[in-house]
Amino acid sequence: MLTVIGCFVGEHNPWLVALAALVCTLASATAIALLTHAGRAGRRSRYTWLAIAAIAGGSGIWATHFLAMLAYAPGLPSGYGVGLTLLSYVDAVAIAGLGFALAATGGRVRGAIGGGVVGGGIAAMHYTGMAAYQVTGHLIWSPVLVAVSVVVGSVLGAAALVVGLSAPTIRGRCVGALLLILAICGHHFTGMGAVTILPDPLVAIPENAIRTEWLAAAVALASCLILLLAGAALVLDLRERKRAEFERERLLSLANAAVEGLAVCREGVIVSANDAFIRLAGAGADALIGTRLAAYLPSLTPGLGTPDQPLEADLVQAGGGTIPVEVIMRPVTEYGNQPHHAVAVRDLRARRRAESEIHYLAHHDALTGLANRTSFHARLEREMRAADVQGTRLAVLCLDLDRFKEVNDLFGHAAGDAMLRDLALRVGGLLDAAQLMARLGGDEFAILTPQTDGAAERLAERILDALAAVPAASGPVIATSIGIAVYPDDALDQRALLSHADAALYRAKNEGRGTCRRYDASMGAQIRDRRQLEHDLRHAVSRNELELVYQPQTQIESGGVTGFEALLRWRHPKRGTVSPALFVPIAEETGAILEIGAWVLRAACRTAAGWCQANQSILIRSC
């Protein structure tokens, strides 16, 4: 008995064996390349490319087998049955095509199943071809080695399609092609090791058997077909690479035009990034690619949040600095046929600055930089609650500038604004961290301070002394009056506390300005009376409550009347005659003096005009 493996070295043509290996290599590489192209093609053209891949792969399996059989020379006459030889070719193409179709539908499981089917096609072709082998003897098979050959072909075939179709790189496709070569050759030589030829001179070769010369021609034809398909696959691969490179450059150009930083990650590793992301990361492109995303976004974990849901995080730069960013992650299903994530990163520094400025403007006065009314009221509310809990006291100081309106009218609003800023700067320099100064509006200011052992009164005196020490040459003289109210001594709520401090301020102004006064209970009635008087005075002209009386002016020597002095009187419906010494200062402070003055001029002129018609010479000197 002769075993094929035992006589491999001595009875095989090495050139034909090398040619078989070359054909197998070419066919395997072509099949993997065509399968890859089929996976990228549309639904209609996919089946065409699968059929071409099946022809290339099946022809390679068939040609490899019969080239190896032609290389074998056992020293016995041999031939091949026509029908079974053709059937072996059909088996190789059809079953390989079925396996390729299963693998091309996507997924590692289907790839493994398809590769196993291809391994079964290799076995079907091999043993159908061996059945077509006719020799003057008998073929005796080892069932164990036959089973092993089927397993070897199926396992390696499954591995070949899983690796070759799932790897996006040329290296991965080369590994897949190598595994397919091992599947074909491993099955063939294991299958050949399973057969033993028992010579028998009584066995004759049929006349219609295919002679080795004709088989060689058929194998050559199949090899040419493989070469043709390999060339087509090479052209397709080059065109696909060119198209992919063009698309990559186009997408990269679009990505670089985006304001946001964009990065593509696979399993948490950065595989691509645009210029904006590179600038944010502060690293070069070469250093960035291949780095884990967590190195730059440590607080971001895969699967955090949902797609298109923005998340805020800190981006750690290569130099160690941090940038507040907004991150959106989205899965990418068509990036190298493998799961990836696109990460969009938006720089939040400008937004944070804008938010900070908005927050500042919402809680501070734009002119002086002090806290505004809203901020002061919120702070006062918190301090009052804390005082209730701790059993402490706090004071509110209300102050405004004396004769501020006159400064505005005389020097202009720019000078008035400068005076307000100067006051805020000088008084603010006297306060500590526990105290708060705010501008409530116009020239009204308030100070919140803890009240212990007359601290508020001492602070007021320090403010007055500091303002009095300002040299006159520095601009308009800054003078202020201050009113003080203490919680909970003078009021039990915020509104009453501010009202009482305001009442104390009015008392300070009425008692000579440039002073400070602490609230007492008598001020409440006085303030209410004064405010009612202010209200009534605003309507005195429209209600015809004002009148002029005329005091004659006479010449002492002659006793003749030289003119009249117009004197203003207010006949209040409830208060009776109100003294000008009381209502004129109020009119000056509230601005009602302008309307009253205009009325006085009109009334005096009407009266003077009537006297002139009576041939009387009248001189109005004052009113």
UniProtKB/TrEMBL annotation:
Keyword hit for Transmembrane: yes
Q: Which positions fall inside the EAL domain?
A: 530-623
Q: Does the keyword Cell membrane apply?
A: no
GO MF terms held by the record: catalytic activity
Read off the Gene3D superfamilies from this record.
3.30.70.270, EAL domain, PAS domain
**Where is each GGDEF domain found?**
392-521
Q: Which controlled-vocabulary keywords does the entry list? A: Membrane, Transmembrane, Transmembrane helix
Q: Where is the MHYT domain?
A: 12-198
Q: Where are the transmembrane segments?
A: 15-35, 47-73, 79-104, 111-133, 139-163, 175-194, 214-236
Q: Fetch the SUPFAM superfamilies from UniProt.
A: EAL domain-like, Nucleotide cyclase, PYP-like sensor domain (PAS domain)
**Alphabetical list of NCBIfam families matching this protein:** GGDEF
**PANTHER family per record:** BIOFILM ARCHITECTURE MAINTENANCE PROTEIN MBAA (PTHR44757:SF2), DIGUANYLATE CYCLASE DGCP (PTHR44757)
Quote the protein name from its UniProt record.
Answer: Diguanylate cyclase
User: What is the source species?
Assistant: Methylobacterium tardum
